[in-house]
Known about the structure:
Elements: H1 2-28, H2 33-54, H3 63-88, H4 93-100, H5 103-112, E1 119-120, H6 122-140, H7 149-174, H8 181-202, H9 213-240, H10 243-246, H11 249-264, H12 271-287, E2 292-293
Antiparallel strand pairs: 1-2
Amino acid sequence: MENKKAWLALCLICIIWGTTYLFLKIGVSYMAPFLFSGLRQIAAGGILLSALYVFRKSGRVSRQQVLLQSIAGFLMITIGNGLVAFGEVHIPSSMAAVICASMPVWVSIINLFSPGSIRLTWIGYLAIFLGVAGIVWLFSDSINDFGNLEYLTGALMTLIATFGWIAGSYILKRGASLSNPFMNTAIQMTAGGIGLLVISFVTGEDHSFHLGADGWFALIYLIVFGSIIAMMAYSYSLKYLPMPIVSVYAYVNPVVAIILGWIILNEQMTWTMLSACLIIILSVILLNQPVSKKRNR
């Protein structure tokens, strides 16, 4: 039963986090990126913590758990979400999603060299190859933009964000059995949000608070769906599914982000991007087949 729920949680992640690139792009068009992201995460963490205590679902929280989840929150939220928000100031939301889609490639490479980890079957390798091919194809339409320093900086910060997310995810995977995933999520968001606000003040961001109707909708959506629901689903899926399997959401996210960016933000959409999206979808279908085997002892 837990495994089925974990797969359902993974499906939610694939869809919801694909939409967050759009709403994050809208949000940072009104406010400084670290400030906007910090307010989002602090609010989400506070709401979830309050709900857990009101309904008496928090359980006992050890100092070890707080420390572990705070470190993961700093890596995944302060560095991961924060640098993606910063990147989206300079690059389209669809391109940010494409860069983040490289995460499964790094996860698979790290997994191959990790002691006691799983090994991919030929289906898994084929799926990763197709996913990488689709990502490269998506990049091909924007290769000329990398001559722009601001564009390059945004792309580089977004790439660094993926490594922060990977590092935090491995910490979560190792400590997933310490407590319930919902309390873990609340601690991560609160700690990560505090880190974002600290960076916002240290870097001297503009702290004026002005949001239009679409800006408020983006903030509320990111708090409820992008942070609370999706982060709980992510922590839950990590507890019951292997890391390389959970990371397939990064293949689906750019497809959702590109389509929404094209429809709502009038971002670029070409036949090359559409074809690449189909290849990425195929890689996801293959990754839903048996893709791993136990490492030989």
